[in-house]
Each structure stands twice: as C-alpha cells, then as structure tokens.
Amino acid sequence: MLKSYLLISIIFVNVLCDCPGCFLGDGVPKENSPFINNTDNDKGNSYDGTNMALFEEEMDSNPMVSSLLNKLANYTNLTQGAQEHEEADDDEGPKKKAVKSPQMGTFMGVYLPCLQNILGVILFLRLTWIVGTAGILESLAIVCLCCSCTMLTAISMSAIATNGVVPAGGSYYMISRSLGPEFGGAVGLCFYLGTTFAGSMYILGTIEILLTYIVPKAAIFVAERKEDEVDALLNNMRVYGTCCLALMSVVVFVGVKYVNKLALVFLACVILSIFAIYAGVIKTIFEPPDFPVCMLGNRTLRNHNFDSCLKTVVIDNVTVTTKLWKLFCDGPELNATCNDYFVQNNVTEVQGIPGLASGVISENLWSEYGPLGMLVENKKLLSLGEGDSAQDIYMPYVVNDITTFFTLLVGIYFPSVTGIMAGSNRSGDLRDAQKSIPIGTILAIATTSFICTLSWPSPWVIVIGSFFSCCGAGLQSLTGAPRLLQAIARDGIVPFLQVFGHGKANGEPTWALLLTAGICEIGILIASLDAVAPILSMFFLMCYLFVNLACAVQTLLRTPNWRPRFKYYHWALSFLGMSLCLALMFICSWYYAIVAMAIATCIYKYIEYRGAEKEWGDGIRGLSLNAARYALIRLEEAPPHTKNWRPQLLVLLNVDSDQGVKHPRLLSLTTQLKAGKGLTIAGNVLEGTYLTRDAEAKKAEQNIKSAMSAERTKGFCHVVVSSNLRDGVSHLIQSAGLGGMKHNTVLMAWPGNWRQSNDQQSWKNFIETVRETTATHHALLVAKNVDSFPTNQERLVEGTIDVWWVVHDGGMLMLLPFLLRQHKVWRKCKMRIFTVAQMDDNSIQMKKDLQVFLYHLRLDAEVEVVEMHDNDISAFTYEKTLVMEQRSQMLKQMQLSRTEREREIQSITDESRSSIRRKNQGAAQSTNLSRQSSTVENTHEDEVAQLIHDRNTASHAAINDKADAGPDRVHMTWTKDKLFTERNRNREYNANVAVRDMFNMKPNQSNVRRMHTAVKMNEVVVNKSQGAHLVLLNMPGPPRNRGGDENYMEFLEVLLEGLNRVLLVRGGGREVITIYS
C-alpha cells in the first residue's frame, strides 16, 4: 500500500515538474542545472522501494544520489538552438530525431578559429608597413605589448572557462556570470559589435588584396587623376565588399560545418604562406630576390603607368622619351618643360628586398614617422634641389597616406591579435569547452606571436596568404558574432533583443545572422580599413579588460564556487592584464576610448533600468557584500557625528486584508524626505504565526516592494509575523537594520479612526510605539491625514512649510523642512518658523536670537514669535474635558455594540452640557466604580453557573451598599436561558448606576490644564498656518500613567483639529543639526 502511494505521488510530481524552466519554492526561475533543484523526467526513478523510507518526504525536492550522479555523467552542453530543435522534432511525430551533442574538439573548435583570426588582414597588409614606419625595435615593442595583453587575458579566460560548464556565449557568458548581467550585457554587446566590425575589416582586406594585387583590372571605378584614386578604390571596395558579404552570409547560413570545412582549406594556404616566409628569409641570406624599386633622386616612385625606370631610351640610335618622362613633363619631346626636381636628379633602381646580409636590419632599427603627404625617401641616395611641394602631390611619388605615430600604429596592429576569443565564442559547439578553450587559445597565441616576430615581406606570400586568411577570418567572424548575440538574447537581459534568440530548427541563429550582416554592411560602407581597425581595438580591449577583472575579483573574493581546473593563474597577472588593456585603450586613441566607454555605460544603465532581473551569483554581488561588511564594521566603531546625521527611516506600514499597502503616501513622503540618501526600511507586522501565515507574509513583502518601486523609494522591506501586533512592532523597532546601518527615526501614520474602532488595541499600540521610540532614543514622525500628502509627481508652488518650535528636540524641526525642500515637490515652498513666548519672555529678543541662530545654521526662513497669555480656562475647555472623561469611564463600564455605544455617548453629552449650566458649585464626590464586568460568553449549554452568580452578587454590593445584593450563595444549578436573563439584568442595572453617577463627575484638574493648552495652541496654529502646505509641530509625550492613554489621544486630536497636513515630530534625545562646519 505504501509503495503504491509513493509511486502515485512520484508520477504526480513528474507531471507537475516536466518543464525545463520550473520555478522553485521562492518563485524565482533558475538556470537549467543537473543538480538538486532540477526536475527532469528521470525523477520518477529516484525512489522506488522501502529501503529509504526515512527520506521519502524529501524525494520531491532532493533526488537520490544515484539519480544525481547519472544526470551529471550524462550531462552535455547542447548546441545553441537545441530547444528549438527539440520543439521542431516534437512536431514531426514519428520522424523525431535525437539532438546531437557538440562534437568539436580543441583543434577544430578553438585552435584553428583563433589562428585564422590572428593571422588575418593586419599581419599581411599592415605589418610590413608598420615595421617600415616604426622600425624594428618599436615594431617588436608593439607586437610584444599586444601579445602580452592577449596572453594575460587568455590566462584569465582559461581560469574562468575551466570553473564550470561554459554553455553558448563564450566570453559573454563568462563575463556575465562573473560580473553580473549589467556588466556582462554591456561588454557582451560591445564585443558583439567589435566582432561584427571585425568581419567588415576582414572583408575589406580581402577586396583590397583582390583589387590591388590579384586582379587590378577588375576595378569598376577607375580614377582619371591621381588625387581621385583613393575615392575610386573606396567605391570599388564598397561594391565588391557588399557582394562578398552576401556570399559569406549564405555560406554561414547553410551551416557552421561548411565554414569549418572551408576553414581547413584557407588555413592550409595560410600555413604554407607562413612557411614560405621563413624560407624566403633564409633564402635572402644567400640569394636576395630581384625586386627593383625605382628612385628619382632619393624619392621613391610608384610603379604605375610606366614600364621602365628610365628617362629616355635609345631605339635604333634615336633617343626617345619613356612613359616616366611623360609623367613629369608636359610632352614627349626632349625639349619639353619638365619638373625641376626631375631635371636635376637621376633615376636609379634599388633592390626592395636586399637580403639579411646587406645590413638592412641595422638600417631599419629606428622609426621614421611623418605627417600626411610626406615623401618616402632613402637618405643614403643623393638628392639635388627641393622641388615644388605644391606640384609634388600630382607626381607619382610614394607618400604617407596618413599621419603616422606610435600610438596610431598600436591601434592599427592590435586587431591582428584579437582572435583569441574566436574559439570561446563558439563554446556551444565544443565537446569539452573547459578543456578546449584554454589549450587552443594559448597555443594559438604562442604560435602567432612567434610568427609575427619573424615574418618579413615577400610579395607572393602576401598575396596568397593574406587573401585566403582574410576570407577565412571573415567567415569566422560572421559565424561567431551571431552566436554571441543569440546567447545575449536568450538570457533576456535586453528585452528588445529577444527576437534574435530564435533560429532554425538545428539551432543556427538566423535572425542574429541577418542583423550581423546589416551591421557588417555599415563597416563595409566606411570602406577604410585603417579607419575601422582602431574602433575594433576599443571594443576588444574593453572586453579583455573585463575578462581580467572578472578573474581578479573571483580570485580575491575566494568564493566557494571558484575552483578552476586551470591552475596557472594569479590575481596579480589579471590586474596586470587589466591595467595593460586600459593603458592600450588610451594609447591607441583616447577619444575612441571615451566613446567606447560611453556606449558601454549607456548599455549598462539600460540593462539596469529595463533589463530582466537576473541572479547568477556574480562576483560584483560578492564584492558588494564584502564592501558592505567592511563598511558596517567601520560604522560600528563610533556613533555618527552630528554633521553626518540624517534620518534613517523605519516606515511602519499597514496592509489590508489582501496584503495591499494602506497608505502609500507614507512612502511618497519618505522619498521626498530622503531623496534617495540614507537608509529606509519599510516594515509591517502580521498577527499570527509564521508557519500559518508565511504565504501572506511573502505576498505582503512583494506588495510593499511594488509600492516602494512605484513611489521610487529606495530601501529594504521587512515583514514580521508575531503573536500580537504590539510585540511585532517592538521587535521591528529593536532589531531592524544591521550594525551601524540601523534606523534612527520611525515614521508612521496617525490612527485616524481610533474613535470609531471597535478594537481599543489600535490606539493603545500607537501610544506604546511612542513610548518605545522614546525609550530606544529614536526620533518619531507621525503624519496626520497622510493620504492628502502630495505625490512625487505634484509640484507645490507659492506655499509655506510652517514649523512650530515649542520645545527643543535636538534640531529635528529645523532639519526636516530643509531636507524636504531639496526635493522638487517642495522646492518652491518657503519655510516659516514660529515659536511661542510666555508672559515672562521678551518676544522681541527671542525673535532676534532665533534669526541669528538660523543664520548660523545656514537656513533661510521667516521667523515669527507668537505670544500666548495666561487666560482663564474657558467653559468650553472645562466642558470638553468633562465629556472626554465621561466617555472614557463609560467605555470602560459598558460592553455595548458600536451602534449602542454611539447613541449612549450622544445622550450623555447632551445631558452633561445642560447639567454644567445648572451647577453653581462642585458636585458631590462620585462613587467609586468597579472595573469588573460580569460577562459570560460562549458558555456550554449545561455548564454550572454558581461561580458566575457569586461574582455578580459581589459586584452589586460594591456598587451600592443599599442595593439588594441577594443571597450570598445560591445552591442551585441554572439553565442557559435563565443564566442569560440574569446576566442582562445585571448589566442593565450596572449601566444605569454608572450613567446616573456620570452627571455628578468633576473633571480632573490636570486634564483640564492639558486640554486648555491643546485648545489654545490649536487656536494659534490654525490662525497662522491653516493655509500652509505642511505644518510641523512638536509632539507631546504620552503620560507616564497608562490610565490616561485615551485622554492623551483626545489631547492630540484637539491640538491638530482643523489642520490638513501635519507632521508631528518627536526628537530622539540627541542633537541632529549644528552651526559648525
């Protein structure tokens, strides 16, 4: 029987939990994981039998170890788009095929893509120019600087990649899970843009090689003049680049396996080209190649539009001019007018590749930077005359096409080493990403670093190797960038990118590929390789910087989950790599660096503001916790100085039956008072036990957080479930906060319906809260008519904030209006301060002193001193006090329903007023009233009533000695009906006696004086401040004797009568404002 029940339960659990994204008990969706909280179809096999019956109640949440180990052993990182693949297969029915797990290894998945991206366009098209411009020493410095940066980054990336499974997304996944979704999304999108524009750069390099070296005659746009050649080349690159992009996009769309097959062919050509470079270098030692370069004087000539490096030639004993002559002269005749420099200097040929034995290394050790348009000259050759610089731009000289300097060359060269992320971008296609990423990346960097430091120009090698290298690198970029965007979109941190998370049934990111091709086309339209390269450097360097930062943060925090298999890392290396990346960003281009940081910052803030909330256990959260712990320990050392005091609020909120916030304007007031600074804790107390009301507590907490978000209140929420409300509020006041981050002020709403409430405990709890804040030395703010307070969207104009400073409270009344006026709601309100002068006070001097005090406090406010003379107590005050005491005594005696109570109060009030007018002298001493009540409710039908009758008899004797008390004991048993009849008769008798004695009451003189103060103060405040937007007033303390609590509430009601918005303020017993700096 037990076994059948368990099997049914397990099947039921499987039906409920058969979804890959099931929610846990806390309502928060978690990432798919093979661990405890994952619910897969094999869960039904986790328990079957009676051997583990002791743990049977935990089987729904905690699987058996055997099941867990089985899932771990069979865990595979499916190719990107596997979920769509499975959904598509479900629709096929019997044609369903199993999803294949990734099969790429280290060589095909990481090493070759990294090698192909590093051995790209910059190596073949720009490295020789960099060496010729910067010299061998500075070129080696550039190469070593860039390779050191990528090697340090690769070490950090290897540590992160081996710290757990790396699904699709590569570098984005590693950064986002280490530094959080904001940093991960910002850097991931920047890296995506960099990878996309890298595809543009490789395509532009491919077209430049094609049109410059392989098929120059294929150009569509041909320049008629030399100055138009650049524009013509750019237009040709735009046309051919767009066609090349379309072709590559089709190849990538067909499938990544075809890209990998083509990568083998392209890479074979690149490797052969590299070997040819080494062979060529060795050959030049013994037999330098014949590669003539034409020189005019010491100026280098472009080998265009002429076939021989001669001014004239002799044909059949006749001297004729060459094509070179026609370029410098106005005609082919020997007597034609020619350029002066052409006439004065001879034409010679020198070897472009003289060989290692010629001393060319020593000649090219040092740099030769120059401005735009500077002539490329050989200082060893003789040159006569200076020439006309205005005419030189039209001559076929070799000139600098851009202004060159060291930092520019660093920015142009750096993209050649940015291929280290090509393998990690395809982490979703790797069989074992933890193993393949570190090995393949570091081997690729080591290989290419060795090649870059030994490579030397050779025209055929450059043509063959660079063309195929650029084609392959372009395909790799168009393959990796869409997968990176797809991973970002599937995480849901950027809402408008979610459409790009979908793809074909086999997981290929179709929509992301279309967007990538569109952005890549923008780079092709720029058409300048030298203009695109520095932009790529910024995005890649920023990504590398955060990879190093992630590794350093995780290492220093020593989080329990930081257990990378790659052991050859250190936080110092990560910090060095991070510093090097930051330095290179500003070395390359400080304004590009600022723009890139601004873009990343905007993306970060957007994700923070609109993105989905994700909790990935990132290092930034751990860093925040460590920083918070350190700050809390420092705050604990000493109490805050008066200059640093600001209200740290505990806001006591009430919720309705649906756990909704009753007075959200309390949160509005909190926001206006705090302006986002300091501590805010929104607290609430539910009555009961947590085991029975845990769901309501969570719902109340969620509703309070929603209300705080709607009112833009930054702070924390704390819901307490207690056996009674009084103890719960006490617990909040005592224990809310942590260490030095505890509240110093309590904000609550005035219990407006305390008179009409059937439960006296509401206003008693309020008074006890006032007493407790006083005992704990907390300041107290009580908002009356809080629902009429302005919202955060309102703007108050032409009004005042009136402060009635009656007793000194440490400066709270001065500080609060100042803080409110910092908010835009109260900014245009003026501040007025009223103080009260007695008969013996000098009101004129008080005003002067107060003005000086405000001047030293740096507060702008109008000052007014109100004189209150000692007047006789009016009949109205006497009558109001008497009515208050009569009502209090009557409610203690009578246990009436709400309707009966209000009717009896009205009759007593009318009778009392007529009695006061008739009296000429004091009434006789009132009879002591018994506080006992003879109420018996919910009595069992057959219960014996002997003891109840005895109590009623004793009560009658105490009220009136002359009354018939009846027999001392009744030796009989009553029925229920007779018992109720006797109880009602006694209650009516007691009530009649109490009402008769009410007419003879004399009010307590202490209560009369307090009521007099409340009435007079109310008259003055209403007269001066009835039209004010807000009135701040000292809150009188509650009586020491708890018997007068209800009278205390009456005093406050009289004091605040006729005022709209009132904030009662009670200081915490310390100074909160100072005149000193």
Keywords summarizing the entry:
1077 residues; three-stranded antiparallel beta sheet; 7% strand; elongated
Overview of the structural elements:
This protein has about 1100 residues and is α/β, with parallel strands linked by helices. Helices cover about 50% and strands about 5% of the residues. The chain contains 34 helices and 15 strands. It has a ten-stranded mixed sheet with strand order 8-7-6-9-10-15-14-11-12-13, with helices on both faces. Helix 28 (about 845-855) links the parallel strand 12 and strand 13. It is elongated, with a radius of gyration of 44 Å. The protein starts with a helix and ends in an 11-residue tail after the last strand.
